[in-house]
Design brief:
Elements (H helix, E strand, L loop, with lengths): L11 E2 L7 E2 L16 E2 L4 E2 L1 H13 L16 H20 L1 H7 L5 E2 L6 E2 L8 H4 L7 H22 L1 H22 L10 H17 L5 H16 L5 H20 L5 H27 L3
Helix pairs in contact: 2-3, 2-5, 5-6, 5-7, 6-7, 6-9, 6-10, 7-9, 9-10
GO biological process, one term: proteolysis
Protein name: Rhomboid family intramembrane serine protease
Membrane topology: Multi-pass membrane protein
Length: about 290
């Protein structure tokens, strides 16, 4: 830099471009900034480093839900997506027929009457544990389940956050299917989102207890549904109980985890539950195969 290019006494050089004289300083760090670097703020100007740091601080302090999820404006998005998926599958079942139910419904171990081959979870078709939770054949069946999802889903989605709510729903569905696989007859065909919805019942009870709300409404509603579970014919009570218990366990871990250890506790409990479900399915499979 030549003598003519040296900043004149009394005017500082920009902290990023020392050869550029400026009388402007960052309102946060007081460093001199030239017109190319200064960024307009609510009061005065700021340097690029301070603006970048402010954005990072804003992201770090973004409001969080009770369980640590991101606060969003639409707290029904995942609920609506799940209802839409169930509805699309239901229409597809009506269009395709019973073959889709036979291919994707929960069956422990049975012989396909059309191909005379073994089918079911024990034959390696583990996907049935989850796909069966999106299958319905009767309008009243999907109607009751989707009504429960619509009323129970949004408050949980708002409290947990979208990702945690989806994890709760899917793990509850798997738990209901797993208990059905363990206790029901090996050739019994089971389908429906009841396990997942009962998981939402359990989670709602935990959330209301955590928020110190009046527990009587959810207790009465749950009691009515349990009466139907054990009195109505052709209802897989195993799916209801499995989903209910696991939904409560997952929700408890999510809303009671200490803030400084929130993610390890939530991930740890969810992973442990999934591992136990896998172990239970392996044991059942070995039993059905005579191992």
């Amino acid at each position: 830099m030549t003598e003519q290019e040296q900043p004149q006494p009394g005017l500082a050089g920009c902290y990023r471009h020392p050869d550029r004289e400026t009388g402007i300083r960052c309102t946060r760090c007081d460093r001199p900034v030239c017109p190319s670097c200064m960024i307009s703020a609510s009061v005065g100007y700021q340097c690029p480093d301070c603006v970048r740091g402010s954005s990072q601080e804003t992201r770090a302090t973004r409001p969080r839900t009770l369980a640590g999820g991101t606060v969003v404006s639409d707290t029904r998005l995942i609920t609506k997506i799940l209802i839409a998926v169930n509805a699309v599958v239901f229409v597809t079942v009506l269009t395709v027929g019973d073959s889709m139910v036979r291919d994707l419904g929960l069956i422990g171990y049975d012989v396909d009457p059309t191909a005379y081959t073994w089918i079911g979870v024990a034959d390696g078709e583990w996907y049935r544990l989850l796909t069966s939770a999106f299958l319905h054949q009767q309008i009243w069946h999907i109607g009751f389940n989707m009504l429960g999802l619509w009323f129970l889903g949004p408050p949980l989605e708002a409290a947990l956050g979208r990702a945690r709510f989806l994890a709760l729903y899917l793990i509850s569905a798997l738990a209901g299917s797993t208990l059905t696989y363990l206790l029901a007859a090996q050739n019994q065909l089971t389908l429906g989102a009841s396990g997942a919805v009962f998981g939402l019942f359990g989670a709602t009870a935990v959330l209301m207890r955590r928020m110190r709300y009046d527990m009587r409404p959810i207790a009465v509603l749950l009691a009515i549904n349990l009466v139907f579970t054990f009195t109505w014919a052709n209802i897989a009570w195993q799916a209801h109980i499995g989903g209910l218990v696991v939904g409560a366990v997952i929700a408890y871990a999510m809303v009671h985890a200490p803030r400084e250890k929130r993610l390890p506790v939530q991930y740890g409990v969810s992973a442990t539950v999934l591992l136990l479900l896998v172990v239970a399915c392996v044991v059942r499979t070995l039993h059905l195969l005579g191992g």
